[in-house]
Every structure is written in structure tokens, then in C-alpha cells.
Design goal:
The protein has 148 residues and is an alpha+beta fold. It has three helices and nine strands; from the N terminus they run E-E-H-E-H-E-E-H-E-E-E-E. The longest helix has 32 residues, at 41-72.
């Protein structure tokens, strides 16, 4: 029996794959658990339409990421914080603070988890930061921490 896998199934394949399995395996295990559906002409057509929609969505996301990368690359974001006489901050600037500053100052929405800080920023001055946008696409920005 031919089935379309709805999820990854160990030993059979990835989600979306059309595989041949025993009819009993499909009826007793795959169908009741929602892991697969029968590979009818209608279901195969729906699968193809879904693949086309996903490809368009992925291309749209790549295009938006390229736009964001060109708008961010080499730009500077200023963040104000309180610091002691030695230039060490009383707190720290986190990825969430950087994401908020980027959105406020540059108009680009960035998820804080996509900002690469090895550790929070704790000193005044300029710090280079990498913002990962999509896959391997990233932009370098400068975060300048100023005295509030």
C-alpha cells in the first residue's frame, strides 16, 4: 500500500515522502497515530499544492531576510546605560536590549535569539554584533553603548 508520511517515521522516511508499506502496518499503526495518509490521487495533488505553497513561502522569507540584511549591514545602534567611573555598566546590555534598539532605531524587527552575543555587553563603547537573519545570511552591526 502506498502512503504519504505526515511526520518523520524511523525506518520509513521523512515527512512528505511517498512510501510503500504493508497494508496492515498502515491500517494498524500509521493511520491511527496520524503518521500517514493513503496516497490517493486527491491526497497526492494536495501534497503537491502544499509543496508549492511552502516553496513560495520560503522564497518570500529569503527575500525579506536579504532586504533586512542590506538595511542592517554596517549600521550602528546606540544604547544608553548607566555606568561607573571606569566605564563598566551597572547592569548589562542583553540580546533583547539590542533587538529592541534595532527595531526602534532602524525599523527592522529582529528576534533576540538571532542576535549573536557570546556574553552580555558590560562596558561603554562600540561592540561588533552579528545578527543572523535566515540560514547562512547574517549582518554585522555595531552597538555603541553610551552613558545615560
Amino acid at each position: 500500500m502506498r502512503v504519504i508520511l505526515l511526520e518523520k517515521v524511523k525506518g520509513l522516511g521523512e515527512a512528505g515522502a511517498v512510501v510503500e508499506v504493508a497494508a496492515g502496518h498502515a491500517r494498524n499503526l500509521l493511520f491511527p497515530r496520524g503518521l500517514a495518509q493513503e496516497a490517493t490521487a486527491d491526497n497526492l495533488a494536495k501534497r503537491e499544492a502544499q509543496l508549492v505553497r511552502e516553496a513560495r513561502q520560503a522564497e518570500r522569507l529569503r527575500h525579506e531576510a536579504r532586504d533586512a540584511a542590506t538595511r542592517l549591514q554596517g549600521r550602528e545602534v546606540r544604547v544608553q546605560a548607566k555606568a561607573g567611573a571606569s566605564g563598566r555598566l551597572f547592569g548589562s546590555i542583553t540580546a533583547a536590549d539590542v533587538a529592541a534598539a534595532v527595531e526602534r532605531q532602524l525599523g527592522v524587527s529582529v528576534d533576540r535569539r538571532r542576535i549573536d552575543l557570546t556574553e552580555p555587553l558590560k562596558t561603554l563603547g562600540a561592540h561588533g554584533v552579528t545578527v543572523h537573519l535566515h540560514g547562512e545570511l547574517a549582518a554585522q552591526i555595531t552597538v555603541r553603548i553610551e552613558l545615560a
